[in-house]
């Protein structure tokens, strides 16, 4: 019995019957994890803001959008990419920062540490396809490409679809994957909400811009007839 | 033991340890199911083709696209909508045609009859959001709305995202949900492939059209400066 218990290990996640053999407890504190993520994001955003200023005719809103796309793109590629391609992150004897992030986040949604296939599928699509597309979107804004708004709509839609699958699957499976209401609202609900309202706002703006462009184009066509 | 076996019932699906209490066997043959779907689709397509001809300046390609959007929209809303909102379809004593469809399809992918949450989530988004949007796309093409191409891209992207989640989750879970290679290739692979290549082609076309419109618009802007 003792042998089985040791190999199954004790973990802090919900549901408690989740089996995580060789689980290594979290070492870093929540504040350390958040501070590192916050500082890294601040550095990235500052760098993009300065870089964006060197492109001609860039509005303030475009600069903000470039910061968002690089921030979310790197989050998708590095943070979520690590999760997708490191199935055994919770077993690492000398855990990296990224492993600690996902063990900490799993307090809000244990389907991450439990490797739920819907989560891995959505995160895989996000990391591999949407991540690089986000960086392309920042480049497209800076260089005023004709596909800029279209690409922003496409990625935002993907982010919204992914978030929808994320929340709906949790609801269908009983919505009981958080250690406490605090982690449920802070990680599962609040942290993810940014990937609902920001893509929604971007979609509305780019949708209007494209419709206006197509509209003007068609009016000119019918005038020249 | 006999009592337990009776309540667990015997079903034809893979994996064999899938528990489907009160499962009622399929009555309709494969050919009947496919003939009804084929005839209904033919009627819908014919009706849309004739109706589309009454709108001014509609190209042949636009007529084909309107047929596709109405066909796929009704498939999403009726067929997939039924699946989403009828969790116990496999238990019906006097099964409807739609219940028979999903029991038959489950021979190619038992996650349907087994009510896998990723499947239900994707089908839910498809039936509730994409279905009505498809009908709107057909209307937008007929009435030459400025958002027509954008809407077609948005729905096509959603269909591609859904299909990606569908295939990736199956792969992650061992890809062993079909009764035989015949059902695997005919239902899981071939039937779904239409929702990969058709949305892809539509996306490429509409993407090019919008980029061209935005491009012309921007050239005119810089000329007038």
Describe the structure.
The structure is a homodimer of 225-residue chains. Chain A has 225 residues and is mainly α. Helices cover 72% and strands 0% of the residues of chain A. Chain A has 7 helices and no strands. The first copy, chain A, has helices at residues 2-8, 30-53, 60-85, 97-105, 117-142, 148-172, 181-224. In chain A, α3 runs antiparallel to α5 (117-142) and α6 runs antiparallel to α7 (181-224). The longest helix of chain A is centred in the C-terminal third of the chain and has 44 residues, at 181-224.
Helix-strand topology string of chain A: HHHHHHH
Low-confidence stretches of chain A: 1-7
Q: Summarize the largest interface: chains and residue counts.
A: A-B, 35 and 35 residues
Strand residue content of chain A: under 5%
Category by helix and strand content of chain A: mainly alpha
Cα-atom radius of gyration of chain A: 21 Å
Q: Tell me the distance between the termini of chain A.
A: 85 Å
Number of helices of chain A: 7
- In terms of quaternary structure, the protein is homodimer
